[in-house]
Amino acid sequence: MKYLCSLVLLTFAVVVGPVADAADSDVVKPTVGSLPVGRVLYLGNSITLHRPAPKIGWTGNWGMAASAAEKDYVHLLTADIAKASGSQPEIKVRNLASFEREYDTFEIETGLEEELKFKADLVVVAIGENVTAPASDAAKAAFAAAFGQLLATLQQAGDPVIFVRSSFWPSPVKDGIMRQVSSDAGATFVDISALGNDESYQASAEQDFQHAGVAAHPGDKGMQAIADAIFAAMKVKAGLAGK
């Protein structure tokens, strides 16, 4: 499915939380189990963050198409992290649709300069929907190389723990590549492929969006399921499975 490709997705970022020096090593960082969670970076597309786009019926400034900011997966997951750690993490949220569409030419170090300076403790990578499914072996290798470079560059900026979410609209080829590259890089892959095949997780089941692309995005139920899946993976990584 290519619903995201029909939308105008701009590159932008949001920072929420206490202002702190990313190089300050004297601060005791909050943790969830063994995972440091003081600074959390979210890299995604419109599901993660989309500016208001009235022409397509979207007026929010959060993850499309949650009914409110606090209902998108970023805010839900951040709330889970805050509750588990006892401290509100500083977060940075970036729409990275430009990488999805131009991964073969995207300059990661300059294009993500501010995000790399943030030196996150934990990174959630939630992309793939805007990537054209590679058909040839060369195209598959190119996407794998670019995605691998993205993860490697993130790891070089403070060695964060990385979680990679599969596409909401499942794509065996793209998701398979991201799964393998994540494994090779030591990142945790979170498979949410079952969600996209269930229309009850889409916004169309909850709200009356006229634009098909917006309506196909996860609604509140879908956003909650995404947050739950990622947080469950975090607990496993943190040694808190079943707690």
Question: What keywords describe this structure?
Answer:
six-stranded mixed β-sheet; 9 helices; SGNH hydrolase-type esterase domain-containing protein; Rossmann fold; 13% strand; hydrolase activity, acting on ester bonds; alpha/beta; two-stranded antiparallel ribbon; 243 residues; disordered N terminus
Describe this protein's structure.
With 243 residues, the chain is of the alpha/beta class. It has one domain (3-14, 32-237): 3-Layer(aba) Sandwich (Rossmann fold), CATH 3.40.50.1110. The chain is 36% helix and 13% strand. It contains nine helices and eight strands. The chain has helices spanning 73-85, 97-101, 108-111, 113-117, 137-156, 172-185, 193-196, 212-215, 220-237, and strands at residues 13-16, 31-32, 35-36, 39-44, 90-95, 122-125, 161-165, 188-190. A six-stranded mixed sheet has the order 1-5-4-6-7-8, sandwiched between helices. A two-stranded antiparallel ribbon has the order 2-3. Helix 1 runs parallel beside helix 9 (220-237) and helix 5 packs parallel to helix 6. Residues 1-11 and 18-22 have low confidence and may be disordered. InterPro entries: SGNH_hydro_sf (IPR036514). Residues 1-22 form the signal peptide.
